Amino acid sequence: MNATRPAHRRPTRTDRLLALVAGVLSGYVALAVADILAGLIRHESGPVTAVGDAVVDRTPVAIEQWAIRTFGTNDKVVLLLGIVVVLGLIAAALGLLALRHPTAGAAGVLGFGVVGALAAVTRPDSDSALDALPSLVGAVAGAVLLYVLVRRLLASDADEPARAAARADRRGFLVVAAATGLTATVGAALGRAIGPPAQAGATASRNALRLPRPQSAAPAVPRGAQLDVPGISRFITPNADFYRIDTALLVPQVDADEWRLRVHGAGVRRELTLDLRELMSREVVERDITLACVSNEVGGPLVGNARWLGVRLADLLREAGVRPPSEGGPADQLVARSVDGMTIGTPVEAVMDGRDALLAFGMNGEPLPFDHGFPVRMLVPGLYGYVSACKWLESLELTTFDAYDAYWVPRGWAAEAPVKTQSRIDTPRGLARPAAGTVMVAGVAWAQHRGISRVEVRVDDGPWREARLGTEDSRDTWRQWVHPWQAEPGRHTLTVRATDGTGATQPERRTDTMPDGAAGWHSVVVTVEAP
After folding, report:
1. Tens digit of pLDDT for each residue in 214-226?
2. DSSP state, 505?
3. Are 451 and 499 spatial neighbours (Cβ–Cβ below 8 Å)?
C-alpha cells in the first residue's frame, strides 16, 4: 500500500459516508474497550462516567434545576445519553477529517482519550493512576481502528482498472467494521456482567447483612394515617418509588465488610473509626421520617416517607466527646463526606438538640438500597437533604461554617436550610375531568420536626374549607388530608395550604427553590363534566 496521498483515489460520496461510519464505529470501540477495562478496575473510571461527573460539577445551578424540573429523577440518564450523542457527533466529524488526514483524525481520538483520563484521575474518589487506563487504552484502540479503516477506503489507485479493487476494499471495510463492532459489543457486555471485584463484594455483603432488632422500635403506623382515597400517595413510600436526587452518575458500590466511618475534627476528644458491625452494636432505633429535596418545586414529587433503622448520631458524637455550641463546643458544623467525594454540612446544634438524627443502615425493613446510600447514610428530620442526608457516608468532621463551605454552598445554596411547610394535591390531578358530584380532593402536607396541625382547601376564589387530616404518625412525617368537594360543572382551580405545629401557615407568594427551598400554595386546574 502506497503511503503517500497522491497514490490514493479521490474520495467519493460513498467514501465520505463510510468515513462517517468509521468515525462513529471507532468512537464506539473506544468506549467499549474503555468499558471493558473499567469493569475490571472500577466502573467510575470509565470515560463517559468520569466526563459526566466533571460536567455535573461544573454545570451552572440554573441548568441543574432546569434538568431536575424537566426530567426529574431521570436527569442522569438524559445527561449520559447527551454525552454519548455529542461524542458520536464528534467521532463522525473525526471520521471525515481522517478521510483527508488519517493521522489527524486518529490524533483527535487520542485527544479525547486524554480528556477522559484526566477526568477519571481528578475525580474526588480516585486514588489510583489506574483510573486513567480505560480512557487511554480505549482511545488507542479507537484511533488505530479509525486509521486502518480510512486507509483501507483509500487504498486503491484512481485509474479505471482499479474500480473492482475499490469495491473489494469497501467490502473489506464493512467486514472489518462489522467484526470489530460485534467483538466490542460482546466484550463490553461481558465486562458489565462480570463487573469489578469491588462491585461483586458490595452486592454479596448487602445480601449477607442481617439487620439488628431495634432496642427502640417505631410503633406501628397508626390507624387512619393512610387515608382510603384513590390516587393519594402511600403513607410509607416503597423503596423502589422513593425519590433519588444526587450527583452520582454511577451509584457507589460499597462493600459493607470494608466500610469504615471516621469521626474527627474540632472539639472531638476521642477520634472514632468504626466498622459496620461496631456501629450496629450500639443502641439501634427505628423511626418514621419524611425526607424532602430542596429542589422540589411547589407540588413536586421529590419527597418521600420511610421507616429507617439506625443509631442516633448525637449519641455517637457525645461518645467522641463532642459538645454542641450551646454547651460551649467549638464546632458549629458537621461535615459529612461520601465515598464519591460529596460533602454535606449540617448544624451541630440541630444534630444534637434531641431530634432523631440518625446514621441509618436500614430502610423499610431491609438494608439500605445502593441507590439510597448503602451501607450507611445520614438523616436529620426537619432539614432539607442537601444539608443533612449524606449517602454512602465515610467521614464525619467537626468544623465551623466560617472555616468550610460544603459542596452546595459555593454553588449558591444556603448553608442552613430547615424544611419549609408544604402541601400538595395528589388527587384530582391537574387537567383532570372528574364528573360532577362529590369529588375527593386529597394529598399530603409536611413540615418535618414541627408537624402539621391544619390543612385548608379553596375552590376558585371561595372561602377556605378545613380538610380532614389523617392520623399523625409523628411530627417528623408527612400527614395525609382529604376534603369532599361538591363539584359543579365547569373549569375550577383547587388550592391547598397547610399550617404547621407552631401555628405558622404557608405563605401564598411563590418563591424559587434557590437558595433554601420553594414556598407558596399548590393549585391544580380541573374541568368538571356534567353528569
Report:
1. 999 999 999 999 9
2. B
3. no
3-class SS of residue 465:
strand
Return the DSSP state at 314: H
pTM of the model: 0.84
Asked whether 443 and 233 are in contact (CB, 8 A), the reply is yes
* Residue listed under C-alpha cell 467537626: 398
* Start-to-end Cα distance in the chain: 82
* Dihedral of alpha carbons 210, 216, 221, 225, sign: negative
pLDDT at position 7: 47
To the nearest 10°, report the CA torsion of 232, 234, 238, 244. Answer: 50
Q: What is the DSSP string of 180-246?
A: HHHHHHHHHHHHHHH--HHHHHHHHHHHH--PPPPSBPPPPPPTTSS---TTPPPSSPPGGGS----
Question: Helix axis angle, 47-58 relative to 13-41, nearest 10°?
Answer: 90
CB 22 within 8 A of CB 173: yes
Is residue 529 within 8 Å of 433, Cβ to Cβ?
A: yes
Query: Angle 38-42-45 (CA atoms, 0-180°, nearest 5)?
Result: 60
CA atoms within 13 A on the CB side of 325: 14
Paired residues of 175 in beta bridges = none
Tell the residue number behind the cell numbers 463546643, with chain if given: 329
Give the C-alpha separation, 103 to 91, whole Å. 14
d(CA 436, CA 57) in angstroms, rounded, equals: 50
